[in-house]
Amino acid sequence: MSWACRSLPTCPDVKSSWPELVGKKGNEAKAVISRERPDITRAILVPQVAVITDDYCCNRVRILVNCNAGDCGEATGTAVPMIG
C-alpha cells in the first residue's frame, strides 16, 4: 500500500503537535506519535538542515532531528513535531 497525503479540509480536530517530544530521540518520538495518533500514516525523521516542501498533509508528521543524513533514529529532536 502506498502512502497518500490527506489534505485540508478533511483534517480531524485532534492533537496535532507534540511539544513534549523536543529533545527526545527520533525513534522514541516516532513511537509516541504512532501510539497517540494511529491515523498518522507517515511520521518521518528529517535532518534539521533539510529543505522541505510547504505542502500540508493531515496524516504526516515531520520530526526534525539534529543529524545530517542517514539513520537519524538516535538523533535528538530539535523542533516541535506537528502535523503538516
From TrEMBL:
Top-rank taxon: Eukaryota
> What Pfam family does this protein match (any one)?
potato_inhibit
Q: Which family does it belong to?
A: Belongs to the protease inhibitor I13 (potato type I serine protease inhibitor) family.
- Segments spanning the bilayer are none
- Report the protein name in the record: Uncharacterized protein
Q: Which PANTHER family match?
A: OS06G0319900 PROTEIN, PROTEIN, PUTATIVE, EXPRESSED-RELATED
Origin species, per record, is: Oryza punctata
The Gene Ontology terms for molecular function here are:
serine-type endopeptidase inhibitor activity
Q: What Gene3D superfamilies does the annotation carry?
A: Trypsin Inhibitor V, subunit A
Keywords of the record = Protease inhibitor, Serine protease inhibitor
* GO biological process terms, semicolon-separated: response to wounding
